[in-house]
C-alpha cells in the first residue's frame, strides 16, 4: 500500500511540475502568468540567438560542402541587410546606447522574416534533391526561430522600458520599413538558384552572429556583473 501511495504522489508531483513548467509568459499582472526578471529574459533571448546561429552556421557549411566543395565562388557576396548600419566590432557596439543597439537587433531580425520564407519556398520546389528538401525544412525551422526571437527581444525591450533602462522611443521594427527586404527583389525576379541560396545562408550566418553578440553586449551594458 505504501508503494502504491508513493507512486500516486510521484504522479501528482510530476503532473504539477510539468504544468508549472509550461506556465505562459504574458502581460504583466495577468493571472496565471509568470513575470520573468530582466536577467531571465536576456538569458532566454541569448540562448535562442545562439541556437539560431549554430543552426545557420551548420546549414551554411553543409550547403558549401554539397554544392561548392572547391568553394570557387565568383564575386563578393552582398547581403540584403547591407542598408542596416551595424557596429563592426565589440568596441563600437559598446559605444552605442542601449536604444540604438536594441533598434539594430530588432531591425536585423525584422529584415529576415521575408527572405527566409522565400528561401524555404524556393528550396521546397526542388524535390529531386534530398539536400534541398533537408535545407528547406531547416529554413522553415529558422524562420520560426526568428519570429520567436524577435518577439522575445520585443518583450525584453518592454521590460527594460518598465524598469527605466530603455527609452520609450524603441519599438517594433516592421520588415516593410527596410529596403530591400525581399530576397527575390534583392537578387532577381523568379526562382532563386544555388548561388542565391548560398548567399542567403552566408548572410544569415553573418547576421545571426551579429544578433547573438549584440544581445550579449546589451546585457552587459544593462546588467553589468552578470557573466560579462
UniProtKB/TrEMBL annotation:
> Which compartments is it annotated to reside in?
Secreted
Q: Which domain of life is it from?
A: Eukaryota
* InterPro entries, sorted: 4_helix_cytokine-like_core, Somatotropin/Prolactin, Somatotropin_CS
Q: What is this protein called?
A: Prolactin 2
One biological process GO term for this chain?
Answer: response to nutrient levels
**Presence of the UniProt keyword Lipid metabolism in the record:** no
Q: In Gene Ontology terms, what is one molecular function of this protein?
A: hormone activity
Q: Which PANTHER family match?
A: PROLACTIN LIKE, SOMATOTROPIN,PROLACTIN
Q: What species is this protein from?
A: Amphiprion ocellaris (Clown anemonefish)
Read off the lineage from the record: Eukaryota, Metazoa, Chordata, Craniata, Vertebrata
Amino acid at each position: 500500500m505504501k508503494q502504491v501511495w508513493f507512486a500516486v504522489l510521484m504522479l501528482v508531483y510530476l503532473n504539477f511540475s510539468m504544468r508549472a513548467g509550461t506556465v505562459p509568459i504574458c502581460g504583466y499582472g495577468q493571472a496565471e502568468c509568470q513575470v520573468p526578471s530582466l536577467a531571465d529574459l536576456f538569458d532566454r533571448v541569448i540562448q535562442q540567438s545562439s541556437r539560431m546561429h549554430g543552426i545557420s552556421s551548420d546549414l551554411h557549411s553543409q550547403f558549401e560542402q554539397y554544392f561548392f566543395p572547391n568553394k570557387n565562388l565568383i564575386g563578393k557576396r552582398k547581403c540584403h541587410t547591407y542598408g542596416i548600419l551595424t557596429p563592426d566590432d565589440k568596441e563600437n557596439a559598446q559605444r552605442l546606447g542601449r536604444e540604438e543597439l536594441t533598434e539594430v537587433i530588432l531591425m536585423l531580425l525584422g529584415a529576415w522574416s521575408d527572405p527566409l520564407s522565400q528561401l524555404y519556398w524556393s528550396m521546397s520546389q526542388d524535390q529531386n534533391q534530398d539536400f534541398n528538401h533537408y535545407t528547406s525544412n531547416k529554413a522553415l525551422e529558422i524562420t520560426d526561430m526568428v519570429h520567436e526571437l524577435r518577439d522575445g527581444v520585443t518583450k525584453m525591450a518592454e521590460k527594460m522600458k518598465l524598469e527605466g533602462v530603455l527609452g520609450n522611443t524603441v519599438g517594433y521594427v516592421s520588415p516593410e520599413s527596410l529596403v530591400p527586404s525581399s530576397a527575390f527583389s534583392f537578387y532577381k525576379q523568379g526562382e532563386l538558384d544555388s548561388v542565391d541560396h548560398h548567399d542567403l545562408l552566408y548572410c544569415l550566418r553573418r547576421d545571426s552572429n551579429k544578433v547573438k553578440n549584440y544581445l550579449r553586449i546589451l546585457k552587459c551594458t544593462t546588467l553589468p556583473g552578470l557573466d560579462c
